[in-house]
Amino acid sequence: MTLSRQPLRGMRELYPPQKRVEDYLIGGIRSAARVYGFEEYEAPVLEPLELFLAKSGTELAREQSYNFTDKGGRELILRPELTPSLARMIAAGGELVFPVKWMSFPDCFRYEKPQRGRVREFLQFNLDILGTADPAAELEVFLVLQRIMRTFKVPDSLYRIRYSSRALAAAALRGAGLPEGEAARAFALLDRRDKMPGGDWESWVLESLPGPGGRSVIEYSRCEALDAPWLISAAGGTVAMEELIAFSGMLGAAGVGAAIFDPAVVRGLDYYTGIVFEVSDTGGENRRAICGGGRYDDLVGLFGGLKVSGVGFGLGILTMQLFLETYGLIAEGVAGRHPAAVFLAAYSQEQRGFVLELAERLRDAGIPVETDISGKGLKKQFSLAEKRGIGRLIVIGPEEVATGCLTVRCGSDRESYETDFDSLAGTLA
Amino acid sequence: MTLSRQPLRGMRELYPPQKRVEDYLIGGIRSAARVYGFEEYEAPVLEPLELFLAKSGTELAREQSYNFTDKGGRELILRPELTPSLARMIAAGGELVFPVKWMSFPDCFRYEKPQRGRVREFLQFNLDILGTADPAAELEVFLVLQRIMRTFKVPDSLYRIRYSSRALAAAALRGAGLPEGEAARAFALLDRRDKMPGGDWESWVLESLPGPGGRSVIEYSRCEALDAPWLISAAGGTVAMEELIAFSGMLGAAGVGAAIFDPAVVRGLDYYTGIVFEVSDTGGENRRAICGGGRYDDLVGLFGGLKVSGVGFGLGILTMQLFLETYGLIAEGVAGRHPAAVFLAAYSQEQRGFVLELAERLRDAGIPVETDISGKGLKKQFSLAEKRGIGRLIVIGPEEVATGCLTVRCGSDRESYETDFDSLAGTLA
Questions:
Q1: Do B39 and A339 touch (CB under 8 A)?
Q2: Strand partners, A103
Q3: Which secondary structure element, helix H or strand E, spans residue B292, and what is its range?
Q4: Residue in chain A lying closest to B10 (CA)
Q5: What percent of chain B has pLDDT over 70?
């Protein structure tokens, strides 16, 4: 039988050049969060289904995920997101020091039709602060996002951190007369605004919520600032409004230039209760949000005992990569960069022992060295070093063995200089 | 409904201190392999079941793994190991430069009863060289293993790289008269030797393979060196014997002191064809092999087209951790090390803005800084910094804002020194 050479559709299979790009993203994101003192954790890929039925919503857990019954009869799920597992860890965590500031890079799974930027296995970055209701937590989260973007040299003009508040949306729609029972439906409509052409969306809203309800949703969605007259008349003076105005002031004072209020941001996940936000491409090249998050007040309490408020986000590594690639912000060299700093070539088979010895000494000094391990002739070793893209090559022949004097050939034009072991180790270290 | 606070049994859930230990292991292993020029790749967690039925063996794929049928009717498996996916990637890889030298840290799954060192979700380290049949590849793999051990300061006396060759085992047993059809059974018996008390194992072998077959397996298993008389009479002069003698000489010349010949090493996976090896604890504290691997000649060919020989191993990160912990080789500080280098405390709420500004400037310089984001009073900020184990604390009050002169308090005894922003950034960077 011949097996297929293809992985399952939409799975995360990365050859070394693609993995280097992913590692470049992970490294930049990790260092941006690390300077705020965030700590890394891991949660399981495989979880009980009920964990996700409880708060992510039935559609995500049942239809859009990989779930199955194991040999012991338990209903399991390949996690479609990380937050419910995090909430469990916080509830079970014993001696945690609050506020907890954690990050993780979970591999997640969704059973959806793959398309640009949407795959079935995807790496996310998750960052959360739990145990404080102070908006300084939201501010820190936004600062991390800004720092991530700056790490990758993204100008402020290319992205927006669009934020709103579910509490404000609820207050405004209630203030405009929307019946309490229609709030969830209104949120679902708002969440679709940027996924449809504007006119289509409005007609759809009016069909879905006929009468004054639908009109209020549209009016609310058009409020481009916190001081928009419709918004003031619907929600002025409410706690939700005051809090969002205060938060907006904090963003201004801290200089988070890409953050703007956008009433239509509500996020699709059921567990958000307060401020919600998305990061999006201003150019419209990439329609999927790069990142989405918000404050959740009731998630940890599901596990009994203490109530711990949290705020956090998930950022798609692949979505971020597509965004950076759109604007040429990933240097060509990233994918091609082979780890070896130097290739040690044996002039003939007799020098293989000496080459290995020298290579091991350089490796002891932390220098990545490649040598021939296939018994290739000198010409084929040159070719191998070149194909790998290793920048320096040293030929070890009888003279090098006798004198210890080494000639380093650099790059494709073979410019060369002489050195000895100690200087070489010093230069490359 | 109150949800369980426990993850599924045997899953990989790591709080930050445990994750720091895992990261310490990953970091050390990665750097040890990187100096040989190995490149990282990723393969999917979710795979078609037939990929593993084909070569890992039915028992592993069907009974000891998580497998299920997806919504589209495909039989899937959560990978129990990485090698079959690697073989597929090599077969499909187009423009690969051989020898391919790759590594990965896959998350793997087995449906087995959890016990010490055996869990259901586990991180592995995989390293492979493909595209050369030269024993220099095996030698390089052994050198990487030795370097991994040295990275963690493991003395040579605490571990052995026990190696043999499936080809030699087959030749010797054939030479001693074992019928061809009983070779697979004999391998399975040999593979159990170190998992049972010696006497029990021998009786069991004689029951399983009555007559001269069983006796040959026992005689073979007792050959402690390549020049053991029984082995020479059974396999002397065979290609397999000559190759293993040559390889043994290479190991001696390269100074791989922990490597020893052990005839009972055959490895349980069906795809190994040549040299096989295991790393084990000499103290017998940890009975599970830390690492196992070998040469596989026919794996890539399963995908049609070219035949590519490979050699590689899988190393269990948790098994390695238990091994190091047994001998006190993971420093206490590893688990406790909080990322922040300094805590900036606000004397009162009025200084919060300045604290944030200063923190952001330090973060711009790459220095991890923690501040209060919960509106805590000064005493509680002290307490937070201490509980987190952050070594330095600076209080920002009106005077610090006015003069820029900063007092750094170090450690729990609060020894202090004065500095200004630039010197601070310089010292901490």
A1: yes
A2: A40, A127
A3: strand B291-296
A4: A44
A5: 99
